[in-house]
């Protein structure tokens, strides 16, 4: 399934935010910040990446379901989408 901006807008926004957070974590490490603070921020980055991935899978599910509702062939099977979902878990 090919992605377009309309399908992934929120996921891209989440990824841009995570990108900024990751840059902050790198700067914290380079500055010798407290380990607990660094790990807290790293956990936030990890969660942001996970949420972006789950958002993409959810968008794919909606897209495939809509195609089926219109009587069209879905771009991905439910098994393929499930496999992608489980890859994130």
Automatic annotation (TrEMBL):
Cross-referenced InterPro entries: Metal_Tscrpt_repr, Metal_Tscrpt_repr_sf
Report the sequence similarity comment from the record.
Belongs to the CsoR family.
- Source organism per entry reads Microtetraspora fusca
Q: Which PANTHER family match?
A: TRANSCRIPTIONAL REPRESSOR FRMR, TRANSCRIPTIONAL REPRESSOR FRMR-RELATED
UniProt keywords, alphabetically = Copper
Do you know which Pfam families this protein is assigned to?
Trns_repr_metal (PF02583)
Name it: Metal-sensitive transcriptional regulator
Record carries keyword Calcium: no
């Amino acid at each position: 399934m090919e992605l377009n901006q309309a399908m992934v807008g929120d996921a891209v926004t989440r990824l841009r935010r995570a990108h900024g957070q990751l840059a902050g974590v790198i700067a914290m490490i380079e500055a010798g910040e407290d380990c607990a603070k660094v790990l807290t921020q790293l956990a936030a980055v990890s969660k942001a990446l996970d949420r972006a991935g789950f958002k993409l899978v959810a968008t794919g599910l909606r897209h495939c379901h809509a195609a089926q509702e219109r009587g069209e062939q879905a771009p991905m099977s439910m098994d393929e989408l499930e496999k992608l979902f489980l890859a994130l878990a």
